[in-house]
Amino acid sequence: MSRNAQLREHHRAKGCTQRRLAIAGALCALAAVVLLAQMIRLQVVEHHHYATLSQENRVKVEPIPPTRGLIYDRNGTLLAENQPSYQLVITPERLEGVARTLNRIDGIVELTEAQRRRFRQRLETARHFEEVPLRTHLTQREVAEVAVNRHRFPSLEVQARLVRHYPQGEIAAHALGHVGRINEQDLRRIDAAAYRGTDYIGKSGIELAYEEVLHGEPGFKRVETNALGRVIRTMERQAPRPGDDLILTLDSGLQRVAERALGEQAGALVALQPGSGEILAMVSHPDYNPELFIEGMTTERFAKLAEQGQQPLFNRAVQGVYPPASTIKPFIGLGALEHGVVTPRATVECDGEYHLEGRDRPYRCWRRWGHGEVDYRRAIAESCNVYFYDTAFRMGIDRISGFLEPFGFGAETGLELLGERSGVLPSRAWKRRAIGEGWYHGETVLTGIGLGYFSATPLQLAKATATLANRGRVVQPQLVRTIRDSIDGSESRAAATVPQQRIELDDPRHWEVTVDAMRRAVEDPSGTAHRIAEGLDYTIAAKTGTAQITGLAEHRDDQPEERPRRLRDHALFIGFAPADEPEIAVAVVVEHGGSGGAKAAPIARSVFDAWLRDDRSYLQALEARRRRAEGGREASSG
Amino acid sequence: MSKSALPNAQGVGVRLSFLQSRLHLDGLLLTALLAVAAFGVAVLYSAFGQDWGQTQQQIIRASVGFAALLVCAQIPPRTLQRWSLWIFSLGIALLLLVMAKGIVNQGAQRWIELGPVHFQPSELMKLALPLMVARLLSEHDVPPRPSRVLLALALIAAPTLLIALQPDLGTAVLVAASGLFVLFLAGIGRGWILGGLTALGAGAPLLWFFAMHDYQRERVMTFLNPESDPLGAGYHIIQSQIAIGSGGLFGKGWLNGTQAHLEFIPERHTDFVLAVVAEEFGLVGVAQLLTVYLIIVGRGLYIAGSAQENFPRLVAGALTLTFFTYVLVNAGMVSGLLPVVGLPLPLVSFGGSSLVTIMAAFGMIMAAHTHRRLWP
Fold first, then answer.
1. Is B297's CB within 8 Å of A13's CB?
2. Which range of residues forms the domain containing residue B348?
3. Nearest-neighbour CA in chain A from B284: distance (Å)
4. Contact at CB, A7 and B54, closer than 8 angstroms
């Protein structure tokens, strides 16, 4: 292209765009004129109309937060209530010098550095006629002090508001959960309009799961304000609808017994009524005081909680998964009877070891020298591993997992609490899905004594035990019994009733054979739970379990007490009582407790005694023994 | 320096001032921008209920924006032209990243966290798209051939859809507009323009029934009849109009707007800040603000018109028009002429990312003027 043509082309392009720019400029000017015309219409022509509206625009709608529903146990004992709490507030516009005022207040009411800092932060975003909280939880004395000195601080005021209070302290902390200040995360999932004026929201446990029921609906008031926005009078008021009350299935007396029986050991306990599935006690230790969360967890407090180790906020009863160990034997035994793999009379020779054909690896019994000839009942009562290695191998993994599934292993129980874990019911399909490998015979053998991949939560164990106690009727565990309407006081069942399931056996007598075997675990002098038979005037059907943390071969010859704590076995226990007409089923796990018969069974016995006879003597004896043991250890270490 | 006296295309010598030759800034534009930003700070101080802390934040953001302007003004248009493909690709990649993050987190997400800063890729796209389309069209014939136009439309559609899916319809429309302005300025035929408007008219019902969320439809319905829902969605429009109307000719005075301070005006420091201006400074204040905006737009269009090359001409023109679209849509929404779409009033509304983007855009516009070269 010649230079001239290039120049021409350039001018043509420039001219073209310049024309378009001119058009665009004209359109912009036109749009500005339209805009200005609208402004003139609003601000000049209709100014009078809008000025009047603005004058009348003094009526505001303010929310009235609802009071949160209360939580009771099954006997009407209050577990969560709302208490008036006094807080010190400051109105910014009447404040003369922040630092000076704070220093002077410090003479009357103690202020920490963190409180001052938070107050200054809040002050920055607050409107000048709106009260800014300075300190919460004033004592009666402090309230009085402030009242006396009120004339010196025109900006100071004491306000009462309702704050969640847990009168039973740590009791059932995990099941109950706690409330805390609404944070950004909560705001994302709630309807902000329903929470205007509300400070707290359920954060865990029942408080979280039943948030909608407990919260209620806010009311509103129309208020007239003066030109500065201060309220002059209330014109109309619609009362809030308070949250509904919850009546839990828990029995706080039994809960207390169970917590004391577990003592300072880490672990969990679930006790439920086999007939209804109502959970009477749910313990997870270590626990925490839910009140700590109400004013917002400070970093120091949280660090202190974490420092204790062992995750106190974690609800072991529904979130802890443990190998069921020997507690699985009655269930596998029942399946073996049902499938004709074993009979009540047929025996297996236990010489302390079991070998798969053609393999060298020994699978050991806990009793090194073996049990000799064991039949079905003795195998359960004395917890013979070899009997169950053999039974499981002959039954095969498919029939085992098929039979155990309806008891609820490997699936959430559907309890209201959030975050429930499902554990693992080992099966070919599960292993392919989770690990991507085929099934090995050796794994079937380990499944027979509840080890290997097998894991379950204490709640799952309690549910399965209740099913056994019911001779096959499956129950749905539940924590909330009824919801009491806050307006008319009517009560309604909380849980949606699920269709009743039943495990039908071809020969229903197998239930009784198995229950009988579990009774012998307590009653026979060689039974693994015989330790708790002393002074018993009712019947217990039980099974103990001891989940090895290390292989049976290592530490075999050590005394369990001498192993480091983290290598000690988990102690487990399941059982129900009375054996014939069960009123209570219990599952206990003591982390690193040692043997199930020695450590877990006495805890369950305390709970049985308390529920069936209202007797605490066994509990006291247990506590006394534990204190002596600790005293002895201290003495020997000192 | 010999460069300080350059002949323009007509051969008439223009003297570039120190500001122009060394700092590559445009005095008039800079003065007008700073004036609006300073006015914005004063209005926000009032809208925040005289909260100095929040106001300081806005000053910091304005300073960051000014720094962005300074940096962008130093980049010669030719360099920008070379970079435009990379900037555009980066923008698309970030939009995809945000979308992937949104899928993972199961919720709408518009930003990426870079340390303490939340960065919205859609802001980058407001600059990247006009740069990309301008590059595509400036390297060939003007007006462009149909195949070029179709390619440009595809380039516009990609980021628009990604942003609309976030979902952020307001920004999507603005991004699309910034690209379409380039096409318009490049001189596409009237047939295209008429066809486009017809397609828009025909497509609107489809958009209404298939693409819009319920809340977006509700906004449009409320715009058509605000009294239908005086305490819900219509509240914004009614209260905003009361604020504007009660301001009258001279306003209630700075810090004295009752509507603003009694919190009747929703979003009074972000999208509805113009209502605070109208209430406290009256028609006179609004007209003055509008005038300064028009000066900025006029200067921007003049700079575009006097550019020697296609690329800076198209970029400067399109960015200026996008800026004015902001003003127009926001003011229209606040005064009840347009539905509520959630766009800030440029340079006045509280908020960091759009302020920085706008300042960066004006840096580029200034660069188009101050890096002029002798032609050919």
1. no
2. 21-370
3. 10
4. no
CA distances (Å), origin A611, targets A253, A255, A453, A616, A619: 9, 10, 34, 10, 12
Residues A611-629: tens digit of each pLDDT: 998 888 888 888 888 888 7
A157 and A270 housed in the same domain = no
Short-list B83, B98, B2, CA closest to B364: B83
Which of left, alpha, beta for B65 (phi over 0: left; psi -120 to 50: alpha)?
alpha
User: Which pLDDT value is given to residue B72?
Assistant: 94
Q: Which two tokens stand for residue A75?
A: 């006997």
Q: In what order do the strands lie in the sheet with A231-238?
A: A59-64, A219-225, A231-238
Cα A94 → chain centroid = 45
Q: Which of A252, A284, A326, A401 does the annotation list as catalytic?
A: A326
Cα distance between residue A150 and residue A256, in whole Å: 45
Question: Considering Cα of B201, then B206, then B211, then B213, what sign does the dihedral take?
Answer: positive
Could you tell me if A32 lies within 8 Å of chain B, comparing CB atoms? yes
The nearest alpha carbon in chain B to A31 belongs to: B328
Q: How many contacts, defined by CB atoms under 8 Å, are there between A and B?
A: 147
Note which residues in 298-317 of chain B have CB less than 8 A from chain A. 298, 301, 304-305, 308, 310, 313-314, 317
Hey, what are B219's tokens? 């906004």
The label of the residue with tokens 């018109």 reads B305
Domains held by chain A: number: 2
Share of chain A above pLDDT 70, in %: 89
Q: Is the pLDDT of residue A561 over 60?
A: no
For residue A511, name the pLDDT band (cuts at 50, 70, 90): very high
Domain membership of residue B376 (yes or no) is: no
Question: Are A64 and A219 contacting, i.e. CB atoms less than 8 angstroms apart?
Answer: yes
Mean pLDDT, chain A, rounded, equals 85
Please confirm, yes or no, whether A2 is among the known catalytic residues.
no
Tell me if B259 is assigned to some domain: yes
Evaluate whether residue B237 is within a structural domain. Answer: yes
Q: Which residue among B143, B263, B293 sits closest to A16, beta carbon to beta carbon?
A: B143
Cα distance from B206 to chain A (closest Cα, Å)?
27
**Three-state SS at A585:** strand
Say yes or no to pLDDT of A117 above 70: yes
Identify the domain containing residue A519 by its residue range.
Answer: 252-637
Give the domain-ending residue among A96, A130, A163: A163
pLDDT in tens, A368-419: 888 889 999 999 999 999 999 999 999 999 999 999 999 999 998 888 777 8
Tens digits of residue pLDDT in B305-359 = 998 888 999 999 999 999 999 999 999 989 888 887 778 899 998 876 788 999 9
Residue contact B258–A57, C-beta within 8 A: yes
| Residue B34 to residue A309: CA distance in whole angstroms | 57
Check whether B226 has a pLDDT greater than 70: no
**B245 to A46: CB separation less than 8 angstroms, yes or no:** yes
CB neighbour burial string for A463-497, b if at least 16 within 10 angstroms, e if fewer: bbbbbbbbbbebbbbbbbbbbbbbeeeeeeebbee
CA angle A369, A371, A377 (to 5 degrees): 160
Q: How long a stretch of residues is chain B?
A: 376
Q: For residue B375, tell me if it sits in a domain.
A: no
Inform me whether the pLDDT recorded for A444 exceeds 60: yes
Looking at residue A146, which CATH number applies to its domain?
3.30.1390
Distance CA B235, CA B231 (A): 5
A91-95, A464-468, A489-493, A633-637: range with highest mean pLDDT: A464-468
Task: Identify whether residues A273 and A378 lie together within a single domain.
Answer: yes
Q: State the helix-helix crossing angle for B77-105 and B121-138, rounded to 10 degrees.
A: 140
ipTM (interface predicted TM): 0.88
Lookup: tokens for A164? 């969640």
Q: In a mutagenesis test of the B interface, which of A6, A11, A21 is the best target, namely the one with the most B β-carbons within 10 Å?
A: A21
